[in-house]
C-alpha cells in the first residue's frame, strides 16, 4: 500500500513518503496553504499482480506564516563611553529562542557566523577606541528578528585590559576547540573573524602571531602569548625587552643547549635570529655558535653565563 503524488507544489515544500511505514512527511519552506493531488496504490490478495489505484484524492495543508519574535534593547552601553567593555541585554517575548551576536561586521561582508549566547545577556570586551556596531539575531522557529546598536569608545582607557580574560583561563591555556568571548577577544587581535570558535584558522593565526613576537609557536594562548596580545592591542610591540632575569639564573648556570625547549629557548632564538619555535635543534645550535663567534666567545653552541651576559648587554 502506498500513494503517488500527482500534483505537488515542489517549489514551496518538500514531500517524502516512506513505503515501509506509510508515513508522508511534508516540510514546507514557507507559510501558506498547500494542496496536493494523490492516488492510493495497492495490491490485494489474489490480484493478478497489477497495482490497483484509487480515485484521485486531495490533501490540503495549512501552515501558519512564521512569526518573528518581538525584541528590543533592555540594556546597552552609553552612546559615548571610555569603557572597553560593553554589556547588552535583549528583551524577547515569551517562548524558546536562540540568540547570537556579531560585533563590527567587516566592510562589504553580508553576514558572519554569530557568537551564540545562553540567555539574553552578553558582554563584549577588549574593544578598541573608535566606533563599534553590534548586531543581534533572535530566532524562534522560522522567524528571525534583528537588532543593531552603534556606540563609540573614547578617551585614553586601555584598549584591552590584562584581566579581559580571567587569569585562571589564561594559565590553563586557550587552544583549538575552545569557544566563547575569550576566543573572540584573541581573534580580534590576531586578525581572524571573531566568531568565538578556536578552529584551524585561529590556531594558524595564533602561531603566526607567536612567531612574529618571539614566542613559542605552539598555537596555545598562555600567559606569555596573552601578555603580548594585550601589548599589541594597546599599541605596543608585543615583544618584551630582554633583561638579565628574562631567563632564570639556575637555567643559565646549567647552560641552555641542544635538546632544550620552552620560552627560554624562544628568547635565545629571537636574539640569534633563529625561528622562535622554542625548540633547541641543530639550526638553533648553529645560530648560537655563529652568534658566539661573532661576539668573540667560545663557539660551543651552549648559552651559559658568559654568552647570556653578552646577549643581555647587546
UniProtKB/TrEMBL annotation:
All copies of domain Peptidoglycan binding-like, residue ranges: 193-229, 275-311
Gene3D superfamilies reported for this sequence: PGBD-like superfamily/PGBD
InterPro entries documented for this protein: Peptidoglycan-bd-like (IPR002477), PGBD-like_sf (IPR036365), PGBDSf (IPR036366)
Pfam families, sorted: PG_binding_1
Protein name: Peptidoglycan-binding protein
UniProt source species: Cellulomonas fengjieae
